[in-house]
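Hey, sorry to bother you again with one of my protein questions. I've been staring at a protein lately and its backbone has me curious. I owe you a coffee for this, so here goes:
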Amino acid sequence: MATEVTIATTCDKSFSVDYMLLSPKDVGLWDLIKLLFFKNIGKRNFIDCPAGTVEESFSQRFIIFISIVAQKVLHLVDKPLGWVGSAIEFMPNFKHANGGFFKLLGNIITGKMVLPNNESPEFLSAIGLWDIRRDLDSRINHEDPRYTSALAIMAAKSAYENEAYIKETVEKHWKMEFLGFFNCWNDYEEDYTTQAFMWSEKTGDTELIGVSFRGTSPFNARDWSSDVDLSWYHLRGIGKVHAGFLKALGLQKNKGWPLPDELQTENPKPYAYYAIRQKLLERLKNNLDAKFLVTGHSLGAALAIMFPAVLAYHKETDLLKKLEGVYTFGQPRVGDLQFGEYMKRVLETHGMRYHRFVYCNDLVPRVPFDSSDVYFKHFGRCHYYNSFYKGQVLTEEPNKNYFSILALIPMFGNAIWELVRSFIIHFQNGPEYCETFTCRVWRVFGLLIAGLPAHGPQDYVNLTRLGSRESFMITSVDQSANGVNVEPLNGSNKTD
């Protein structure tokens, strides 16, 4: 039967020890039922894995089932969701391009209306309309333990915008140097799916270079599909890593991660990892004392932590020594337990900081599912903040897999509070905290899907600004030494 035939592979996967790649596009109901009740998943036509692969655990097969169903639903709503996103982006930008609502009416009557240009410095994406802030908080200076985290989330948020907007933000609002925008190729998607930018901040003789990856677009079903996908490659010496994130960062078909000097140059298209690595080497050559940080929100957060993982895979010791830290916001899980142990060794060896921020009931840090040591797990410390922006350091965010009957009532109760808070927060904290209409619409969605609006950048910016200075002085249990370490979340205060 056709449904019993293993997928015809188009790529040589010899660069990996093992792999499991889900392809839910053409899967039918009967295929899914057989997945639940037959252990030999290697016979399923929508699962690409070595022949004879068996999954004994029903619960693990059920997790795969849920992942495929979620991806199927997202595939079905891909175009409608894109249309909704385009409409949401168009109307506010249309009004702004014409000088406001009343001028727009006049321009329509006179036939002089101006269509928005999505490459202009004024154009805002759906994320930008969610949180319109561009300036850094002037009350948080370099000596403040919140500074680097506050800078990192603003960069992660800005990465969703077009190049002209980002350049103007960095140069005019942050008074820093814009180093470049990267629009990068995905070998598997055969499209430019990965974006990032770099900037430089100089304070006296010190220089901090930043790399920020763009995250999940709220109206891009493909991005959301990557977040819930369980596909993985097992890389030798590293562990199982999320296939979608590897591909977005620059995984090469049939080659995996060749060394930069082995990368074939006949394809002029830039790959994120290789292009950003080269730019960093060029910039750091001019200042031996400079450091760099990597940041991102959502999918961008996954790419941010994967970047040093591949640097370590290539034994880029000199670059890793200059990596001040990785700051991620709303990061999904990227690898298994072995990958987590690998990254812990990398972080410890090179003295790097890894700060994984999670706001309240944010859905994305709780996917893909953490069902056992077989699949995806977080590692390192979780800087968890509740809806009052009170922070604590945990080994894992509460309700780690999101779907919990006991957590449902508190989650929806919290969603009601977040909606109410959106109308009053600016009275206490100032006009810059006034939430936009778009943001409040997302808060309403939270009454249906609790935790979805919590993934937006608004609350992550707020927690870095409204969280107490003390909450950024990390108190954590060092499990290896059974002691307590206290250190600030600010790279400028780092001690060797």
Q: What stands out?
A: Confidence is low (pLDDT under 50) at residues 1-9, 475-487, 492-496. The first strand starts at residue 18 and ends at 22. Residues 274 and 473 are 34 Å apart (CA to CA).
